[in-house]
Amino acid sequence: MPEFINGKFPVRYEIRHVCRQSGARLGWLHTPHGSFATPAFMPVGTQATVKGMSPEEVESMGAGIILANTYHLWMRPGPDIVRQAGGLHRFMNWDRAILTDSGGFQVFSLSDLRHITEEGVNFKSHIDGSRRILTPERSIQIQNDLGADIIMAFDECTPWPAEHGYVKRSLERTTRWLERCIQAHTKPETQALFGIVQGGTYADLRRQSAREITAFDLPGFALGGLSVGEPASLLFAMLEETVPLLPADKPRYLMGVGTPDYLVEASIRGIDMFDCVLPTRMGRNGSVLTRKGRMIVRDAKFARDFSPIDPFCQCYVCRNYSRAYIRHLIKADEIFGLRLTSWHNLHFLLDLMEQVRTAIQENRLLDFRDQLIAESNYWSSEKP
C-alpha cells in the first residue's frame, strides 16, 4: 500500500546535511511510494520498462524512483489501459516512486512533424502518422491516468542555439501553460506537480522564468532546456544563475542529464534529481562506464581480456562476468550481452550517486570531484 505523506503536498523534501566544502545538499524525498536519498539518478523506463531490465533488478541496484514517458505511453498502450490496470505501479510491477515527464520534449523533438501554437502542439504520431494535439490539459490528464507520484508541467523545450526574443516568448508561454496545468490537475492529493524553469542559455531569461515559475506554490521545480547541445560551461553557468532562485525546501530536478561529470558538477551546484537514457543506450551500443572513463567493450582488444568491466565495481556483472565473455555475447548478437552492459551502466551511475551522497555527508564533495577528474576522462573536454 502507498505510504501517503501528511501535509500540503503528496511529496515532501527533507534536507539532512549541507556539505561545508561545496554547499551541496544531502536530502530525502518522501513520496506516496516510499522515500529515497538525494542527489539521486532516476533510471528511465520510457515505455513502462527500463530497457532490458526487470523492475526487481533495477530495485536491487538501489533505485528509489524511475521515470516513465508520457508521450510514448499515450501512443501505446494508451493511458486508459494503464488506468484500468490500476496505474503504472501495478501495470509494470514497480512499487517504488515513479515520475512521468509531460511528453513535451518528445513532441518538440518531432521537428517538421509538429507545429506549436498557444493551444498546444500539433504533431504527427511517429507510429501511424495520425494527427494529434498535445495541450497542457491533455498532458496532465494522461499523467493523472498513469498515476505517477510526480508529474511534470507541459512546457516548451527550446533548442540550442535559439534567438533571445524567441526564447523569451517561449518561456512566457511555458508560464501560461503551467497555469493551465495546475487548473487541469485533478489528483493533487496523490500526485505532485512540478513546474519547469526554461530560458535557454540566457541568464536574464533564466532568472525571469525562475521568478515566474516559482511564484506558483508547487511541491518541486525542474530545470529544462539544458543539456541539449550547449557547452558544459554554459550549462553550469545557467545552474549558478538559476538554482539560488529556487526554494531551498523543495526538490530541484535537472532534466536529461546523466554523464558522470554533469551529475557531480550539478550536485555541487545544488541539484537533487537527474534522469537520462544514457546508461541503457550506451549499453545497447556495447559501451560501458568505468572509474577511468568510457570503454567500448565490444572492441577486439578485449577478446582475451578475462578481467571484469571495472575492477573497482561490485555490481552483479563485474562480480560474475569478464570483458571477453561480454564482448563475445555482443559480437554473437546475444541479448544477454546488452543486458549485462546496461545492468553495469545503471549500477555505475546509481553507485556514483551513493558516493556523491557520502562525500556530501563527509564534507568532501570537491575533493571527490577532483579525484574523479584525476582518474577519469569524463572531464576531458571542459574541466571546471
Topology, element by element:
Elements: E1 12-18, E2 25-31, E3 34-38, E4 40-45, H1 55-60, E5 65-68, H2 70-75, H3 79-84, H4 88-92, E6 97-100, H5 104-108, E7 114-116, E8 121-124, E9 131-134, H6 136-146, E10 150-152, H7 164-184, E11 192-197, H8 203-214, E12 221-223, H9 232-242, E13 252-254, H10 260-268, E14 273-276, H11 278-284, E15 287-290, E16 293-296, H12 316-320, H13 323-331, H14 335-361, H15 365-375
Parallel strand pairs: 4-5, 4-14, 5-6, 6-10, 10-11, 11-12, 12-13, 13-14
Antiparallel strand pairs: 1-2, 2-3, 7-8, 8-9, 15-16
| Count of alpha and pi helical runs | 15
Overall mean pLDDT stands at 94
Tell me the Rg in angstroms.
20 Å
Note the beta-strand portion.
15-25%
Distance between the termini: 45 Å
- Based on DSSP secondary structure assignment, what is the total number of beta strands? 16
Cα shape: globular
**Uncertain spans, ≥5 residues at pLDDT below 50?**
1-6
Q: What class do helices, strands and sheet pairing give?
A: alpha/beta
Order of strands across the main sheet:
4-5-6-10-11-12-13-14
Task: Characterize the main sheet.
Answer: 8 strands, parallel, barrel
Helix content: 25-40%
What does this entry look like structurally?
By secondary structure, the protein is α/β, with parallel strands linked by helices. Helices cover 39% and strands 18% of the residues. It has helices at residues 55-60, 70-75, 79-84, 88-92, 104-108, 136-146, 164-184, 203-214, 232-242, 260-268, 278-284, 316-320, 323-331, 335-361, 365-375; strands spanning 12-18, 25-31, 34-38, 40-45, 65-68, 97-100, 114-116, 121-124, 131-134, 150-152, 192-197, 221-223, 252-254, 273-276, 287-290, 293-296. The strands form 4 sheets. The chain has an 8-stranded parallel barrel with strand order 4-5-6-10-11-12-13-14, surrounded by 4 helices. Strands 1-2-3 form a 3-stranded antiparallel beta sheet. The longest helix is centred in the last third of the chain and has 27 residues, at 335-361. The protein is globular. It starts with 11 loop residues before the first strand and ends in a 9-residue tail after the last helix.
